[in-house]
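thought: fold this chain, then report.
action: predict
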Amino acid sequence: MSRSSVPRARTRSAVLASAAVTLTLALTGCSSSDTGSASADGKITLTVGTFGTFGYKEAGLYDAYMKQHPGITIKENPTTVEGNYWTALQTRLSGGGLDDVQALEVGRISLATSEDLAGAFADLSDAPGVDKKDYLAWKWDQATTADGKTIGLGTDVGPMAICYRQDLFKAAGLPSDPASVGKLWAGDWAKFVEAGKRYQAKAPEGTFFMDSASGLFNAVVSSSPVQYYKDGKLAYKDSASVRTAWDLAVKAVQGRTSQGLKMFDTPWQTAFSKSTFATTVCPSWQQANIQQFSGPANKGKWNIAQPPAAGNWGGSFLAVPASGKHVD
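observation:
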């Protein structure tokens, strides 16, 4: 993925540095304090359960950690769809088979910190190497229980952007540099939908402006300070952001600017390599999916522009199951 306005190396290093800190803090200490469950030769295999594309393996972070800790081997157990991952995790919390480190999506964190589930995870608040000051206060609080137990360390906060195909924009007669693209819809998600109509009027055959109307819906809601709850109470029926997001998503469908894909499903993944859509809403974690699914043939064709409105979608945590073999 290219970023003409931001040096790629600097941007990538900033993201990976954050991930590296979290990963190191989550795994530190195993080689010295948890030898009881090691193999006969004293070596330990740590398993890390993830969903989607966290990017740790792709960025070489596991290899870097194993080089620093020769007695430890890391094995990642990824699941493509987070919903499937969460279902399996809940089953394993009661039946066994947990990984040493388990990722948690922010949409599940309230359940994970609830009285029913919090006891299944180790308290990381006073773990060696963990400093609360290294994390955004609100991110830390999301994974902290009412009695002060912190069951997960934040990996990212999902700031919003729009990722787009430069070549498809050019072919449709639209600007292709990030600054000009951002101006197409600056300040209003309705302008984003209108830009889709402009794209579709001269779109390369077989392509659509956006991948998913449901993705648009989530992005619009995520850019509003009032979403599904107000003052701690469920208020989606009266939420202006939910109504606006719904109306815009419907317009995208009716205007045939959306390919109608379900994000994260196999057809959505395949569409990246087939180059059948020109934009996708792009929280920070989405970049890893684009890089993975687009394939070598589309390297350098994607770029990133400002979203119509600032927002945050998603953000994950790494947790340590209390019943794991290598908790320390």
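thought: worth noting. The radius of gyration is 21 Å.
final: tokens above.
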